[in-house]
Amino acid sequence: MKKSTLGTVAQLGGEIRQYRKNALLSPMFTTLCVILEIYIPYLTASIIDDGIMTGNMAHVAKTGLMMLVMAVLAAYFGVQAGTHSSRASTGFACNLRETMFAKIQNYSFSNIDKFSTAGLVTRLTTDVNSVQMSFQMIMMLCTRAPMTLIVALVMAMSISARLSLIFLAVMLVLVILLFILVPMAMKYFKQMFRKYDVINAVIKENIGAIRVVKSFVREEHENDKFEHAANDVFDNSVMAEKIMSLNNPIMMTCVRTCTLLISWFGAQMIVRGTGLTTGELTSLLSYVMSVLFSLMMLSMGFVMITQSAAAAERIGEVLNEEPDIASPQDAVSSVKDGSIDFDAVAFSYHGKDGKRVLQDVTLHIASGETIGILGGTGSAKSTLVSLISRLYDATEGCVKVGGVDVRRYDVEALRSEVAVVLQKNVLFSGTVLENLRWGKPNATEEQCREACRLACADDFVSAMPEGYNTRIERGGTNVSGGQKQRLCIARALLCSPKILILDDSTSAVDTATDAKIRAAMREYIPATTKIIIAQRIASIEDADRVIVMDEGRVVAFDTPARLMETCPIYQEVAISQAGSGSGDFDEDAKKDVHDEKGGARV
């Protein structure tokens, strides 16, 4: 095994924790079961040689009763071994999933970007299941098989050392074959798990966009896409299983060859009277089956372990991934105010060697200001605001909040003062109140209502069948897009943050409601710094200042009135949204803008 693989195994072994007792008791009971089972053929030889051959029926009865007691005890020990192994493996899988999930919660966005969503789901489900089954296999088969092998060999050698050499020769052949087959199969098992990621991605995308699929009648296309992904898993699985399926015929050939050789040479020894009895030959044949079937169990264990080794490596990748963003020692635990400074900031999603999506950003935003951000698709508006709450860290330069570099803050303290309403609004399954209290777990119902009133959500929530106790379905599928946006804004307002970021989060509400929300925020949270990313000029026309972005650069930062005079990009957007019937801009002004930029930008 590679050093990294051994490290992963040791790391996963630490997840047994409170189930160590079960993990130790299972092999112990298995060992006791094996010893009793292996000793029974030895008693069978005694019954034949000392009982049947001599006509001593008392010895037959006495030895038979002893065999019955040992068989009952072996069955009891086997049940105990199975019970403890099941409890240990299930608990191990539970602990492992909890550890992985907690690790993922500490990831920054850049960490999450390294793994696909489908890949993380596969690791938490299919991969953990595979490792769990392998762990149970190790406790059961991989304890029983070696113990059976060792004890049976000892008993066989105590009967006839010469005939036992046949066992050793067959074992050597099987071990060599296993070392050849396992690496070949391992390659295909690794590919198979990667294909599981693709299947999960297809399923997740299809279910999440099922309305779009049905709207465009693309069911057949989606079926073909899933069939292709499923066939990839099938092909890799078949190739791996084809290789490992060679194990069974090879094993059975060795069993039959070994049985034939021992029967031949054992019969000759009995006929010649050279130290072997009929009962002992019977015991040796039983031990042949025990030894070789223990090797078969070992080979099955190798198949399972080979398959789970690929899964374990993928789990190890999640556990060994270190969060890029963490709180420093002696972290600042309080945010003084909502002022924001960008000092020569540049950012790339792939580190310093990657393509920059933000360049040379230098800004100062005073606490309590309302700032609009305008720019075309891909101009890095969302990326800019994600640096404020340290969802990402700047590649160059620094971002300050309240006059302190964001990298000096305790991450939880910083993010509790920077509320973000993202472009993709997410609601969780639960009541309206439970969703709102994500912003403030101990908020009263009246505080929740007040936040909803500010976000213009109180009217439609109160009209719901159970009001604020109405259940929201997973993903907020039982509310409209505009209602979902307003609930998300209310959830952010409930935090009473020093900085509120609205990332195009009123795009699904009408302009009148949008204006009411902005007016309410101006009146009731004047001390909060408000940053509004918007595509509509109307959403930022009353902002104190507006940042205009283009291709990752800040091309203008001024009041809306001055931008209308000095910034061609702002003018173009305003003209295009005003429409041809607007009286705000005359035709000469429109022509000037078109001439300067070579055409309108929408």
Structure description:
The chain is of the alpha/beta class and 602 residues long. The protein folds into 3 domains: 8-320, Up-down Bundle (ABC transporter transmembrane region fold), CATH 1.20.1560.10; 340-557, P-loop containing nucleotide triphosphate hydrolases (Rossmann fold, 3-Layer(aba) Sandwich); 567-602, no CATH class. It has helices at 3-13, 20-52, 57-105, 109-114, 117-139, 141-159, 161-208, 210-215, 219-245, 247-272, 278-320, 381-386, 411-417, 432-436, 445-454, 458-462, 481-493, 511-524, 537-540, 560-566, 568-578, 587-597; strands spanning 340-348, 356-365, 370-375, 396-401, 404-405, 418-421, 430-431, 471-472, 499-503, 529-533, 545-550, 553-558. The strands form 3 sheets. Strands 6-9-10-3-11-12 form a 6-stranded mixed sheet. It is elongated and about 115 Å long. The two termini are 58 Å apart.
The total count of helices amounts to: 22
Helical percentage: 55-70%
Described by strand count, sense and barrel closure, the largest sheet is: 6 strands, mixed
Structural class per helix/strand content?
alpha/beta
End-to-end gap:
58 Å
CATH arch. level architecture of the largest domain: Up-down Bundle
The CATH homologous superfamily of the largest domain:
ABC transporter type 1, transmembrane domain
pLDDT averaged residue by residue? 82
β-sheet strand percentage: 5-15%
Number of domains: 3
Number of strands: 12
For the biggest β-sheet, the strand order reads 6-9-10-3-11-12
CATH topology of the largest domain: ABC transporter transmembrane region fold
Q: Give the CATH level 1 class of the largest domain.
A: Mainly Alpha
